[in-house]
Design goal:
Elements lengths: L25 H12 L4 E4 L5 E2 L17 E3 L4 E9 L12 E8 L6 E5 L18 E6 L10 E6 L18 H11 L3 E5 L5 E2 L15 E5 L2 E10 L11 E8 L6 E5 L12 E6 L12 E6 L9
Antiparallel strand pairs: 1-2, 1-3, 4-5, 4-7, 5-6, 7-8, 9-10, 9-11, 12-13, 12-15, 13-14, 15-16
Protein name: OB-fold nucleic acid binding domain-containing protein
InterPro entries: ChsH2_C, NA-bd_OB-fold, Thioester_dehydratase-like
């Protein structure tokens, strides 16, 4: 006769206090919760001078009774450590991802454990702003009863504001700018020679150093040298790809630089001193209202092309 299979005995149990579990707070924790109900955060001072938050009846360092001196702390504090909760459970205080954090309130010597809320739009990865040293403030509930949950959560201090900004304006071109733009439509780059011999581009009417009128209109070649540049990682409607390069081009025969896009070359290959040439838009795409030069490209990549 074989041995019957062994099945462990199991039983379901529930521990419940239908009327609620009641405990007395005592004078120290009771004072803390009463102050919290009234919208204040306090700690208690130990005999060694430290301020405990939340308060306890005894100093955790040496077990001696605390004093009866209560100290208002915070409300702001600093995150000393944290852990991110990507998938809150039903009993968690927040229904969206949040952090548990130890927060050292201003004026306290021990940190308070509480929730840190970055809002409902965060996913499984911690927000970039979440870090040790983050400054935070408590968000108190409107209806408070004298419990640690009277603090709904802590939230980061406001350190920046994103403003949606738009400015519409009209530029009215003067005589020199109109002449310059007409030249661009024709595939020509026009500058001005001042009475000091300095050649400025774009074309202008007056020398910016002393206000004297220009003495001569100068047509410049569409070749030059890249004097400095910047790699941009923010999208721009003028540039098809990110990253892209903007730079200052010193046209042959000019004494000042022209700001332009740099194209036709890998970003990693762009260098100061590189010889470049303008790549013009087709004649039927040129107009006074937009640049007629798409960008400047390395001379070796533009050999044999015509404006």
């Amino acid at each position: 006769m074989g041995t019957p299979p062994h099945h462990p005995l199991t039983g379901d149990h529930t521990v419940e206090f239908p009327g609620g579990y009641t405990r007395s707070t005592g004078p120290v924790i009771g004072r803390f919760l009463t102050e919290l109900r009234d919208g204040r955060l306090v700690g208690v001072r130990t005999r060694s001078g430290r301020v405990l938050v939340p308060p306890t009846e005894y100093d955790p360092d040496d077990g001696s009774p605390v004093t009866d001196e209560f100290v208002e702390v915070g409300p702001a504090g600093t995150v000393t450590t944290w852990t991110w909760v990507a998938a809150p459970r039903p009993k968690h205080p927040l229904g969206h991802p949040f952090a548990w954090a130890l927060i050292l309130l201003d004026g306290a010597d021990t940190p308070l454990l509480h929730t840190l809320d970055f809002g409902p739009d965060n996913g499984s990865a911690p927000p970039r702003d979440l870090r040790t040293g983050l400054r935070v403030r408590p968000q108190l509930r409107d209806e408070r009863v004298g419990a640690i949950t009277d603090i709904a959560s802590f939230r980061p201090e406001v350190t920046r504001v994103v403003a949606r900004t738009r400015l519409d304006y009209t530029i009215r071109a003067g005589t020199a700018l109109t002449r310059y733009l007409d030249g661009q439509v024709e595939g020509r780059i026009l500058g001005m020679r001042s009475r000091h011999g300095t050649v400025y581009v774009p074309l202008r009417e007056f020398d910016p150093t002393d206000g004297s009128p220009g003495v001569e209109e100068v047509e410049l070649p569409d070749t030059g040298v890249l004097t400095m540049f910047s790699v941009n990682h923010v999208p721009d409607p003028r540039a098809p790809d990110v990253p892209f390069v903007t730079g200052y081009v010193r046209l042959d025969g000019a004494d000042v630089d022209l700001l332009a896009l740099i194209g036709g070359v890998e970003v990693s290959q762009v260098r100061t001193g590189m010889r470049v040439r303008a790549e013009w838009l087709p004649p039927d795409e040129r107009s006074r209202t937009r640049p007629s030069i798409r960008w400047f490209v390395p001379v070796h990549a533009d050999e044999g092309r015509n404006a």
